[in-house]
Automatic annotation (TrEMBL):
Its main location: membrane. The keyword Transport applies. It is a multi-pass membrane protein. Keywords: Cell membrane, Ion channel, Ion transport, Membrane, Potassium, Potassium channel, Potassium transport, Transmembrane, Transmembrane helix, Transport. InterPro entries: cNMP-bd_dom, cNMP-bd_dom_sf, Ion_trans_dom, Ion_trans_N, K/Na_HCN_channel, RmlC-like_jellyroll. It comes from Huso huso. It is found in: Cell membrane. This is Potassium/sodium hyperpolarization-activated cyclic nucleotide-gated channel 1-like. The keyword Repeat does not apply. Residues 468-583 form the Cyclic nucleotide-binding domain. Residues 595-614 are annotated as: Disordered. The chain crosses the membrane at residues 131-154, 286-311, 365-388. Pfam families: cNMP_binding (PF00027), Ion_trans (PF00520), Ion_trans_N (PF08412).
Amino acid sequence: MESDLEKATTEAVGCSDVYNNPTTYQRLVNYIFGPEKKEVNPSSTTSTASAPDTVEHDLELEEELNNVPGSVTDINMGLSKQSRWRRLFFPQLTKHSLYVYGSVTALQNECARQEAAGVCIIHPFSPIRNYYIMFMVFITFINLIAIPMELAFLEGEHTEEFRMVIFNLCSDTLFLLDIAINFRMGVITEDSEVVLLDPKLIACHYLKSWFVLDLISAFPVDYVILIVKELEEDQSTTTYTASKLVRVVLFARIFSLIRLLRVSRLVRFFSEWEQVANSNMEAVRLFIRIICLFAMILLLCHWNGCIQYFIPSLQDFPEDCWVVRENLTHAPWIEKYSFGVFRALSHMIGVGYGSADPPTGEAELWVVMTSMVSGALMYTMMVANVAAMMTNVDAASKAYRSKFNHLEDYMSYRKLPKNLRSRISTYYQARYQGKWFDERAILNVLSESLKVEILGNLCTDLVKTVPMFQGRDINFINAVLLKLQCEVFQEGDIIIREKAAGDRMFFIEHGRVMVKTEQKFCTELADGDYFGEICLLTKCRRTASVQALTLCNLFSLSAEKFNEVLKDFPEIKEEMLRTASQRLWTLQDLKDQKQTPLSENGTDKIKETSTLGV
Ligand code: CMP
C-alpha cells in the first residue's frame, strides 16, 4: 500500500521549480543516474561506488565543489615531487571527478593508487587522456576521409600522391603507437565502478577487447607499398617481374582498405568521450549523438562517392562505364570526386539527377544497388534517431496534452454540462500548468534528504509567508513539508462546508478565501493563513464554511499527519490551540454576545467552546 508520506510529498511537488535550482537539479540527476560517489581503498586496485545517502555528506560535497576554483585543479602536488608532465597522467580535481569520487581525499587516494600501480599509466580522468582522445578522433576522421579518396582518385596525381605518402606514413606510425599507448591507458569498466590501473589488468582487458581489430587496422600498408615500389624501380628491366609487382601493388592498394577498420576507433572514442565527459546530462548525450550521426552520414556519403569511381578504375574504365560516359577520364581529381559523390547521393536519396542513364555492366549495377541500400539504411538510421530525440524532447508537455485529451473525451462521453466542463478544464490547467510528471515515481526513487530539499524549494513561499513556520525548528518545517499535499481551488469553490466532518486542514500559499457561518459571520483569510484546524483539534464538525474568492493554491495536511506532527511538537500545538480558541470566541460572541475569559490551558478552552460549532 502506498504510504501517505509518499502521497503527500508527491503531490506537494506540483510544479517544476526544482529545475530552476541547478544544485538541487544536478544532485537529483546524479542521485538517480549516477555517477555515484566512490570510496577508494588505496591498498586495493579497484574503487567502488556508493550512493549518497546523508544530507551532511551531500552538503560537504557541495562545499568542496564550490571550492573548486577552476575547471581543472592539480591535487597531487603533495603526493611526491613529480615532474610537471607526469602530473598530466594523474586524475585531476574537476567538478566531474569530484562527483565520481565523492571527496578530495578519495581523489587523492586514487592518485596514490595510481602511483602505486607503476610508471606511465594514464588515468581516465587525467587531462592528457582527454586531449589524446580528441586528437585521435581528429586523426581517425581525417584517415577515414583520406584513405578511400587516395585509393580512388589520387592514382597518378604525383603532387597529391607524395603528400598522401607522407600523411599515411605518419598516421600508420601514430596508429601503431596508439596500440602501445593502449597498454598503458587506465580503463573505466562498463559498470563505471572500477578503474583498472594495474598494467597486467589493462593489457588483459585490451587484448580481450579491441587489440586484434586495432592491430589489423594499424597494419602499415604504406611501408609495404613503399618497399614494393623501391623494388619495382630496381628491377623494372625485367618485364615479367614488373608486371608481377604491378599486381602486388594493386593488391596492396585493395589491401590498404583494411585501414578503414579504424572506424572502430571512432566508435570507441565517441563512447569513451561520452563516458569521461559526464554523460549524465541528457543535453550532452544528445549533442554527442547528433555529432556522431552527422559524422557517420558524412563518411557514408564520402565512401560511397569514392566507391563509385574506384570500381570502374579497377576495371580500367570500360567503354560504357559512367566515367567514360561523363568524359571524366582525364579530368582533375576534384572534378571526378565531385561527380562521384553527386552520383552516390542521387542513388542514396533516390533522386534521378546524375543517373539518367541506367547502370551498365554488372559491377556498376552492384555499385548502384549497394549505394541505394546504404542510402535506405542511412534514412532509417536518421529517422529512427530523430524520432527518438523528438520523443524525449518535452515529454512532460506531451503527456499533459494526452491526459487532457483523455479528460475531454471523458467529459463529452459523460455529457457533462458546459459550465462544469469549463471549470474542470480550468482546474486541470491551473493544477498541472501544461506539464505532467509522474511525481510519485520520481520522488519514490529519491532519498529523504533530497525529498526535503525539493519540497523546501517548492514551498519556499509558504514557509516565508505562514507565520507558524517563522523562526521554527528546521525539523518541524521538514516534518510538515514532507506531509503536505498540493491542492488547487477555483473562484467560488466551497473548500469546507459548515457542519461537515473534517479530515484535513489547509495552508494558503496564494489566494483569498472567505470564512462564513450561518450566523452571518464573515471574515477573509489570505496568503500565509491557515484554516480547518479547529475540526482536527476538537474532533468535532466544521465550525464554518470556507469558500475560495480567487484561484487558490493551498497545501493540505491530513488529520492523521497533523496529529503525528503535533505529537512531536507540543509547543506548536499550544499555539494552534490558542488561535483556534480565539476564533471560536469570535464565533461564540456573535452567537450569544457573551465573552468567555481566557483560561490557562488552551485545550480546556477548546473543549469548552468546541460545542459551538456542532
Ligand atoms: P474548522 O472548524 O475545521 O473549519 C472551518 C474553519 O474556519 C475553522 O476550522 C477555522 O480554521 C476557520 N475559522 C472559524 N472561525 C474563524 C474565525 N473567527 N476567523 C478565522 N477563521 C475561522
